[in-house]
């Protein structure tokens, strides 16, 4: 975006959902609202079906809310070329490479294949190519004095991404422009008084981005160097996972989330749907991890004989299937 002084800001995010929302935020509220469809959800008691009139009323109310939100919107500014997305899942797997390469590709393929309906190799290759091309472009522009703004949160991939990117900046030299950080608050209160929790920037709506600009803090050189040093330590440890613990980014064992998975499996009958367990772990505990890692851990439980598949995956997605528990094999106390 362009600041009030006219300088360009390079926007750095660490997920494709955040990138898409930020792109929409750049022009949100500017000009006439696009005539896009509005999705609605209507809640009813079991067995009840909404009438066409009720659905039409709900649709009109949703469109009116969207119109009012658009008219109040403050565009963030900038162009899509100012947004750099590094969706590298750096909280998982080998991080010893300075520049994402074959080891990062392998880690991402293993993670995505547990949830992908098809071979993900080409998708991961394209993702890495875009990231590396973006890194070169960001380096060139930052080295010419353009300002950098990094959007991150305590979500594992985003906080890892922030440390990794600052380690890159530390290597680019002192000629780089100023660096600002915006950390997503753990919760916000809407105008209607409702408190909303967001675990990452991918959950932020386009009209909301501009409201977070006031949280930007300029990163001093000592902070950048400190984060770069911490990332080098994590690279040496090269643990299977990384995440926040007591406010610090640390290496974690691969089974750190297993107790939450065991807890939800225990609540299921002997035969259960794997996708439902994954959905509850994601929604209930807000761990900041994706479905791929949970599916990977459940696959490990199958190999260990704790669970066994009952049906074949539906729609080609590996975890859309039924599993059977082995008596006493899944305990949350493990």
Please supply descriptive tags for the structure shown above.
single chain, 3-stranded antiparallel sheet, 9 helices, about 15% strand, disordered N terminus, alpha/beta, 5-stranded mixed sheet, about 325 residues
Furnish the topology, listing elements before pairings.
Layout: E1 9-13, H1 16-26, H2 52-72, E2 83-85, H3 102-113, H4 121-143, E3 147-152, H5 156-172, E4 179-183, E5 187-189, E6 195-197, E7 217-218, H6 221-237, E8 241-245, E9 248-252, H7 258-266, E10 271-273, H8 274-285, H9 291-303, E11 307-309, E12 322-325
Parallel strand pairs: 1-2, 1-3, 3-4
Antiparallel strand pairs: 4-7, 5-6, 8-9, 10-12, 11-12
Provide a descriptive summary of the structure in words.
It is a single chain. With 334 residues, this protein is α/β, with parallel strands linked by helices. The chain is built from nine helices and twelve strands. The strands form four sheets. A five-stranded mixed beta sheet has the order 2-1-3-4-7, sandwiched between helices. Strand 5 (187-189) and strand 6 form a beta hairpin. The longest helix has 23 residues, at 121-143. It is globular, with a radius of gyration of 22 Å.
Q: Give me the secondary-structure category.
A: alpha/beta
Biggest sheet statistics:
5 strands, mixed
Radius of gyration: 22 Å
- Helix content range: 40-55%
Q: How does the overall form come out from the CA principal axes?
A: globular
Query: How many individual β-strands?
Result: 12
Which strand order do you get reading across the main beta sheet?
2-1-3-4-7
* SS strand fraction: 5-15%
Arithmetic mean of pLDDT: 88
Count up the helices. 9
Low-confidence stretches: 1-6
**How far apart, in Å, are the first and last alpha carbons?**
49 Å
Order of helices and strands: EHHEHHEHEEEEHEEHEHHEE
């Amino acid at each position: 975006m362009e600041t009030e002084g006219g300088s360009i800001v390079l926007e750095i995010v660490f997920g494709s959902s955040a990138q898409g929302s930020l792109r929409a935020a750049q022009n949100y509220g500017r000009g006439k609202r696009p005539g896009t469809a509005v999705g609605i959800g209507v809640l009813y008691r079991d067995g009840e079906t909404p009438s066409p009139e009720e659905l039409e009323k709900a649709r009109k109310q949703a469109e009116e809310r969207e119109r009012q939100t658009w008219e109040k919107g403050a565009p963030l500014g900038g162009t899509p070329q100012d947004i750099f997305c590094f969706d590298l899942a750096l909280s998982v797997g080998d991080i010893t490479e300075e520049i994402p390469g074959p080891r990062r590709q392998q880690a991402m393929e293993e993670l995505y294949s547990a949830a992908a309906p098809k071979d993900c190799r080409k998708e991961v290759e394209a993702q890495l190519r875009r990231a590396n091309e973006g890194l070169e472009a960001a380096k060139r522009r930052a080295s010419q004095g353009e300002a950098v703004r990094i959007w991150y949160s305590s979500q594992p991939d985003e906080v890892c991404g922030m440390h990794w990117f600052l380690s890159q900046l530390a290597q680019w030299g002192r000629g780089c422009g100023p660096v600002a950080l915006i950390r997503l608050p753990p919760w916000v209160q809407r105008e209607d008084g409702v408190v909303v929790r967001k675990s990452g920037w991918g959950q932020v709506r386009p009209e909301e981005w501009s409201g977070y600009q006031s949280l930007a803090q300029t990163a001093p050189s000592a902070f950048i160097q400190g984060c770069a040093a911490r990332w080098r330590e994590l690279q040496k440890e090269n643990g299977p996972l990384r995440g926040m613990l007591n406010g610090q980014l640390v290496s974690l064992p691969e089974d750190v989330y297993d107790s939450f998975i065991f807890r939800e499996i225990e609540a299921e009958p002997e035969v259960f749907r794997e996708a439902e367990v994954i959905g509850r772990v994601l929604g209930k505990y807000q761990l900041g991890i994706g479905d791929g890692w949970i599916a990977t851990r459940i696959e490990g439980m199958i190999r260990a004989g704790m669970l066994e598949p009952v049906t074949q995956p539906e729609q080609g997605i590996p975890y859309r299937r039924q599993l059977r528990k082995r008596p006493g094999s899944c305990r949350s106390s493990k």
